[in-house]
Amino acid sequence: MINHLPDSAFQRNPHVPMTKDEIRLLTLTKAQLKPHQQILDIGAGTGSLSIEAALQLNDRGHLYAVEQNPIAMTTLHENITKFSLENKITAILGMAPEAIPPYTFDRIFIGGSKNNLAKILDQGRQQLAPYGKIIINVLTPQTLGEVMQYLKTRAITDYTICTAQITHYKKVGHYDLPLPLNPVHIISLF
């Protein structure tokens, strides 16, 4: 069961990206988390995905959130404290793949790679537990192309891709004005 939180539940900083409401739901659905799992979130940003994933964990499960931006790390810590998840989430300030802790992970989320995607995926695949999954959320066509090239050069065939285009509506007078969000490609590697 996914403990779903609205975007408004999180501490925000206008300079820090956040995985939005519906994308978190789709990503967590694709992840099929179990309460005892070890999870890695690379490019954690505000920590919205990390928080919702950690809320599904029991005492044996743990999440490691890697973030290279000190401003984002401050917001991430604020959210970890707000939801009392200090015992479930370890926040790591640093650049992946160097900052990835030397553990085996059941699930790996990648939300940001700072031009290190291939190296992150190579290391993540080495540290992935049997039957583990890597879920990558991609915004730009350049990063999507990079992922597709990676899959091709590594001869990876066990993956799925879905593209989510979410539109919210805002009441303007007597009308409902569509406010589309950026499309997000959710790629799952098995």
Describe this structure in words.
This protein is of the alpha/beta class and 190 residues long. It has helices at residues 21-31, 48-54, 70-82, 117-126, 141-153, and strands spanning 38-42, 62-67, 89-93, 105-110, 128-138, 159-164, 167-172, 175-180, 184-189. It has a 7-stranded mixed beta sheet, with helices on both faces. The longest helix is centred in the middle third of the chain and has 13 residues, at 70-82. The chain is globular and about 55 Å long. The two termini are 21 Å apart.
How are the strands of the largest sheet arranged? 3-2-1-4-5-9-6
- Strand and helix order: HEHEHEEHEHEEEE
Poorly predicted tracts of residues? none
Number of helices in the DSSP assignment: 5
Helix amount, in percent? Answer: 25-40%
How many strands, which pairing sense, and closed or not: the largest β-sheet?
7 strands, mixed
